[in-house]
């Protein structure tokens, strides 16, 4: 494709002088009328020029490259150059471009739209020209071929998915309009917003639908407005009337409403093996699933929802066409396999990715996510994770691990006599509703007890040892795999609700799951299994298990050879329910599908690549696994600011895609600095800093601060309440480094300042007393996030930060009076610390003399976190998306809580700690305080992993770079110190025997 500039030979890509013959590369020659394709001819001939180009395309006489170059040259009336000649000269050329695209193939369209987007971004004048001619309205008139284009790309399973996903798709449903282009679509989004201002209507789409939930499927009506999704259950439906009323309190969404601003991803899904469902993921890590009458309705719904794609985690464009992509296309086009191979993500994260794109969901028990058994030793007093004998062979299905059992299933397959049913090795599946309930039966929040109690006697999990033995050796038992909770949810092994679960063979009551001797408590069992899942023994063979469940050994001859064939009704495409006209037969077929389980969508038809070995990656120059030891020093650099004021807040927003990756610092005197981050390792030499060696170091001092030339642009001059102690809790920096939020003002507000100019941009009121602390959640699409403010009035307010409008609130016309999303109550004293996690949907806060409370982001008080007797005054809180909550109390006391309120560990240190943070996976805790020493701990049990050399001043704040490889601390001496940090090294050095 064309990249930035036209080719050097000049003129239109297919231009010629009057009467000359134009030679097309590899495509013969065409005689053109005088001056038709010559840019020097007046622009009034633009329509004729496009007509000639269209004729050449139809005749197959021109290459895609020449088409793109010619179009660009015609748009600007000369030789196109993205730097010097990019202004669209005539609005009519845009209309001609839309007409011409109908005659181009998908690849050519993608290249033209990609370059046209770049042209729009270069100039407001270009945007205005496009708006004047009604570009979007013109696009809508060309919609007849869109469904065919999508259908063609869906059918082409062999096409290179990169090409498929670059193809432009122009879609509309009702009043929704959009151009779906490659890249971030910023310019076109601006154009779209202007066009959408003139469009309206309360209900964009309404359709019959089924709400698919774990314990029931309810018919109703789905309605979509311009800002929300609504679902109303049909309470007169006979099937709904037959539902046990005890189930209804456990089913969310029967009369549901979901805000567009909360939507983070949209996936197409299967229901009963039909591609007619949709799952919408929300900011608080929940999701809702709907089934529709047909695939056409699914497309209409997708086009009526926000353009979020499948989220931001998989390296895919946020476009509706991505939501409509097949699982195989998502797999091929995402960057997750490469990231897993490079060990940038864990085995658990990768398996969750595969399950998610393959259609597995928490909302349908027949399609629950699938995880492998990895350990085989449940008998020993201790477990050695360095012994291969303790690990399962992941190249074989769980039902074929025992040689005798494998021979039995081979004989069954080869001697199959039923002519009406294709042969299979197993009559039951490794993942069914029954096997899921088997594990989740003790958890009321997951499954209603009313639904599960009738099944408990048969399904209740007794011990991992018993279940694994049955899966491996039992000839007629279910060859079940595991569910994700096995690796992160210890509560599922405990009968904390006191259910009557039946009797064992020895007539004793079944209560908690009997754990192996090497696990003293459920938390140990889950943690050790998780470590086993991430071990080298599993990493080096996990791709073989993926081949069985999601890959080329799932179907066909390879599945037969691998003893991996299940009942035919478990496979996608095995039955078309719409073709069954007999209601009784259809109902029976649906019941069979639900009984047999469902195989995930097949993601690849060739062997899955293995994970790179840890030793191999150790020798790559920028490997996250490079164990530095003597190779690099603990301290990378020290950066001293001229003010000497203690650095009390550090925010390291260093992602490469940011306009300004930076480490933002704020001092006690409210002087801030935007210190540019260099995303290269470079030469990390001894401590020290100079302008000459700045390009070798990761952090470059803010020039306005270093040169003292623009300190007025870096000073927050508004006075704070004199009774407020300036701490790290008084500040929040937005994820794009462009705004700083500050609290503590006498007028009971908190304020928003521009980090570019230092100017005040918004004042936010809501509390009845001084605001004492602020916290920001992780950011999502467009920089949107939650802000939580805590106050002396003993309340917290949850606010919404709009990354699009750069304000608190999502209405730019009402930025002076934004309203909080929720009011969080329960404290009876001043709130001094708070943390918010959008993925968990939780806010954890601490009052001056305790306690710590857990709220949902909707304002519901869930529980208090009760520490030991003398742990009374919380000061710091850190929460990870994995559910770890670390609280620091006065006098050097730490507690680790689960999000369900269980105290997991505690410790006391001699330092007065001022800053804490958890690694991204929640496994490691980093602390720093008045003694100037950074310490690293294992979060689960507070085992000390590493102590850094002491600094000559106390530590006031800290943050981690995006890659978790650099720790930046703010010092009481007015400097920041950057440390090398290597969580992987401590992971591999940690003892492997339990």
UniProtKB/TrEMBL annotation:
The keyword Repeat applies. Its main location: membrane. The keyword rRNA-binding does not apply. Residues 325-611 form the BEACH domain. Interacts with RII subunit of PKA. GO terms for biological process: intracellular protein localization. The lineage of its organism: Eukaryota, Metazoa, Chordata, Craniata, Vertebrata. Residues 198-306 form the BEACH-type PH domain. Keywords: Repeat, WD repeat. GO terms for cellular component: cytosol; membrane. It is a peripheral membrane protein. It holds the Pfam family NBCH_WD40. It is found in: Membrane. GO terms for molecular function: protein kinase binding. It comes from the Eukaryota. This is Neurobeachin.
């Amino acid at each position: 494709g064309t990249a930035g500039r036209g080719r050097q030979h000049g003129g239109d890509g297919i231009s010629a002088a009057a009467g000359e013959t134009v030679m097309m590369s590899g495509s013969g020659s065409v005689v053109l009328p005088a001056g038709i394709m010559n840019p020097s001819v007046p622009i009034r001939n633009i329509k004729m020029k496009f007509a000639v180009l269209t004729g050449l395309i139809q005749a197959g006489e021109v290459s895609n490259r020449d088409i793109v170059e010619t179009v660009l040259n015609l748009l600007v009336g000369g030789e196109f150059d993205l730097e010097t000649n990019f202004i669209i000269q005539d609005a009519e050329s845009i209309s001609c471009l839309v007409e011409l695209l109908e005659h181009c193939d998908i690849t050519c369209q993608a290249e033209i739209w990609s370059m046209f987007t770049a042209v729009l971004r270069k100039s407001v004048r270009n945007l205005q020209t496009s708006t004047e001619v009604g570009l979007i309205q013109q696009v809508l008139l060309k919609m007849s071929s869109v469904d065919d284009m999508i259908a063609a790309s869906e059918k082409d399973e062999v096409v290179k998915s990169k090409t498929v996903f670059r193809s432009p798709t122009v879609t509309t449903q009702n009043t929704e309009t959009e151009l779906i282009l490659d890249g971030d679509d910023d310019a076109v989004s601006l154009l779209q917003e202007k066009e959408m201002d003139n469009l309206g209507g309360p209900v964009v789409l309404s359709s019959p639908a089924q709400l698919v939930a774990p314990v029931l499927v309810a018919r109703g009506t789905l309605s979509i407005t311009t800002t929300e999704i609504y679902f109303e259950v049909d309470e007169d439906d006979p099937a709904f009337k037959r539902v046990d009323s005890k189930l209804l309190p456990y089913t969310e969404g029967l009369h549901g409403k979901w805000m567009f601003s909360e939507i983070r991803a949209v996936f197409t899904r299967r229901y009963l093996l039909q591609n007619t469902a949709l799952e919408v993921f929300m900011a608080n890590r929940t999701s809702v699933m709907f089934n529709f009458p047909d695939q056409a309705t699914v497309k209409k719904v997708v086009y009526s929802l926000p353009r979020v794609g499948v989220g931001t985690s998989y390296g895919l464009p946020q476009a509706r066409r991505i939501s409509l992509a097949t699982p195989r296309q998502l797999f091929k086009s995402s960057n997750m396999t490469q990231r897993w191979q490079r060990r940038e993500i864990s085995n658990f994260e990768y398996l969750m990715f595969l399950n998610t794109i393959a259609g597995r969901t928490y909302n349908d028990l027949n399609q629950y996510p699938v995880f492998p058994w990895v350990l085989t030793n449940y008998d020993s007093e201790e477990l050695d994770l360095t012994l291969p004998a303790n690990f399962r062979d992941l190249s074989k299905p769980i039902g074929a691990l025992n040689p005798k059992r494998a021979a039995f299933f081979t004989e069954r397959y080869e001697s199959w006599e039923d002519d009406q049913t294709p042969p299979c090795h197993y009559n039951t599946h490794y993942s069914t509703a029954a096997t899921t309930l088997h594990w989740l039966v003790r958890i009321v929040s997951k499954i209603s007890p009313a639904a599960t109690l009738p099944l408990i006697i048969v399904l209740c999990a007794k011990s991992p040892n018993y279940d694994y033995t049955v899966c491996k050796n039992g000839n007629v038992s279910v060859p079940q795999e595991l569910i994700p909770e096995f690796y992160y949810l210890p509560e599922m092994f405990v009968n904390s609700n006191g259910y009557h679960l039946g009797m064992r063979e020895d007539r004793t009551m079944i209560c908690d799951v009997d754990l192996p001797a090497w696990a003293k408590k459920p938390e140990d069992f889950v943690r050790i299994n998780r470590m086993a899942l991430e071990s080298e023994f599993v990493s080096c063979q996990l791709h073989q298990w993926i081949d069985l469940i999601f890959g080329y050994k799932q179907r066909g001859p390879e599945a037969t050879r691998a003893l991996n064939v299940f009942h035919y009704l478990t496979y996608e495409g095995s039955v078309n329910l719409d073709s069954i006209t007999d209601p009784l037969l259809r109902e029976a077929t649906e019941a069979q599908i639900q009984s047999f389980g469902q195989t995930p969508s097949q993601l690849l038809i060739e062997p899955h690549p293995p994970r790179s070995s840890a030793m191999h990656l150790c020798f790559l120059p920028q490997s996250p696994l490079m164990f530095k030891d003597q190779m690099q020093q603990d301290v990378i650099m020290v950066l001293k600011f001229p003010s000497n004021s203690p650095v009390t807040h550090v925010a390291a927003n260093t992602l490469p895609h940011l306009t300004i990756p930076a480490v933002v610092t704020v001092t006690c005197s409210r002087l801030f600095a935007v210190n540019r981050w260099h995303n290269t390792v470079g030469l990390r030499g001894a401590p020290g800093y100079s302008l000459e060696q700045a390009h070798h170091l990761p952090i470059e001092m803010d020039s306005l601060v270093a040169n003292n030339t623009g300190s007025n642009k870096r000073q927050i001059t508004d006075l704070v309440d004199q009774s407020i102690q300036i701490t790290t809790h008084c500040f929040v920096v937005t994820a794009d480094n462009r705004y700083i939020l500050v609290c503590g003002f006498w007028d009971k507000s908190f304020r928003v300042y521009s980090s570019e100019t230092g100017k005040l941009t918004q004042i936010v009121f809501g509390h009845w007393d001084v605001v004492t602390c602020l916290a920001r959640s992780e950011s999502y699409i467009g920089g949107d996030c939650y802000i939580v403010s805590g106050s002396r009035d003993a309340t917290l307010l949850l606010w919404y930060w709009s990354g699009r409008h750069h304000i608190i609130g999502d209405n730019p016309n009402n930025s002076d009076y934004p309203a909080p999303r929720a009011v969080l109550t329960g404290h009876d004293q001043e709130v001094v610390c708070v943390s918010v996690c959008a993925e968990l949907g939780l806010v954890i806060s601490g009052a001056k003399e305790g306690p710590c409370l857990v709220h949902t982001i909707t304002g519901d008080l869930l529980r208090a976190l009760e520490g030991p007797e003398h742990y009374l005054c919380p000061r710091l809180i850190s929460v990870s998306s994995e559910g770890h909550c670390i609280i620091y109390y006065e006098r050097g006391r730490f507690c680790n809580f689960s999000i369900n309120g269980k105290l997991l560990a505690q410790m006391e240190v001699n330092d007065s700690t001022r800053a804490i943070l958890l690694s991204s996976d929640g496994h490691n805790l980093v602390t720093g305080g008045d003694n100037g020493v950074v310490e690293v701990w294992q979060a689960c049990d507070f085992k000390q992993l590493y102590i850094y050399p002491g600094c000559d001043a106390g530590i006031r704040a800290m943050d981690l770079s995006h890659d978790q490889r650099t720790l930046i601390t703010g010092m009481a001496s007015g400097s920041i110190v950057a440390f090398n940090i290597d969580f992987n090294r401590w992971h591999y050095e940690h003892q492997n025997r339990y």
